[in-house]
Specification:
Number of domains: 1
Distance between the termini: 31 Å
Largest sheet: 7 strands, mixed
Number of strands: 7
Oligomer: single chain
Strand content: 15-25%
Helix content: 25-40%
Radius of gyration: 16 Å
CATH architecture: 3-Layer(aba) Sandwich
CATH class: Alpha Beta
Length: 207
């Protein structure tokens, strides 16, 4: 599906409510474009004290995910519709997220489709504004070209508002989160590498 399609152009996602039993100081992880949300489910199980949110542009998939979360009694997990290109600042309040996870986004190989790739300055500005001080942006891909392009957007821009946690222009080797997406499990099962990036939010706003 095309996230820039006219049917997704209008901002219409609803603000997300936090689980009532977790206070405003509870840590919050948000998976962007969660699809089947395996990562979010595993993270919610491993950390019941955290708010875990999976955001997905396909509304039916998001509905199925929220139903499965309810069936699994994961009261700290929310799965919701969001087009992150237009809706993210409506869904999440400023300075409420501790970690964003952008995992294995569609590569959009054709040059004419590169504009559909996710990591770019406008999104980085929104992510920065929704992260708490010291918050983290975690990116992973099994395609080197896509990961290198994401790295160039952040590490290559001194005004991105983020700093690479393992050093400029370096990939992080390990997964420290205690959860894997289905794509990560398949990639590692093939013996292939996950190209992982971890950035910390700087206090200064992008620009």
């Amino acid at each position: 599906m095309n996230p820039l399609g006219v049917q997704y152009a209008d901002a219409r996602a609803r603000p997300l409510s936090r689980p009532a039993h977790l206070g405003p100081d509870a840590e919050c992880d948000v998976e962007l474009g969660c699809a089947d949300a395996q990562f979010s489910f595993e993270l919610a199980r491993a950390h019941p004290e955290r708010v875990v949110v999976g955001l997905e542009i396909r509304e039916r998939v998001a509905e199925w995910g929220q139903r499965d979360a309810a069936d699994a009694a994961l009261t700290n997990l929310r799965i919701a519709y969001c087009n992150i290109n237009v809706d993210l600042d409506r869904v999440l309040a400023p300075a409420t997220v501790d970690r964003f996870h952008l995992l294995f986004p569609d590569p959009w190989f054709k040059a004419k489709h590169h504009k559909r790739r996710v990591i770019e300055a406008p999104l980085l500005a929104v992510l920065h504004s929704r992260l708490r001080p010291g918050g983290e942006l975690h990116f992973a891909s099994d395609i080197y070209e896509v990961a290198l392009e994401a790295m160039a957007e952040v590490d290559g821009d001194p005004h991105s508002g983020f700093v690479n946690l393992v050093g400029p222009w370096r990939f992080a080797r390990d997964n420290p989160y205690g959860a894997r997406s289905k794509r990560e499990a398949k990639t590692l099962g093939r013996g292939d590498r996950v190209w992982r990036l971890r950035w910390r939010r700087l206090d200064d706003a992008p620009g």
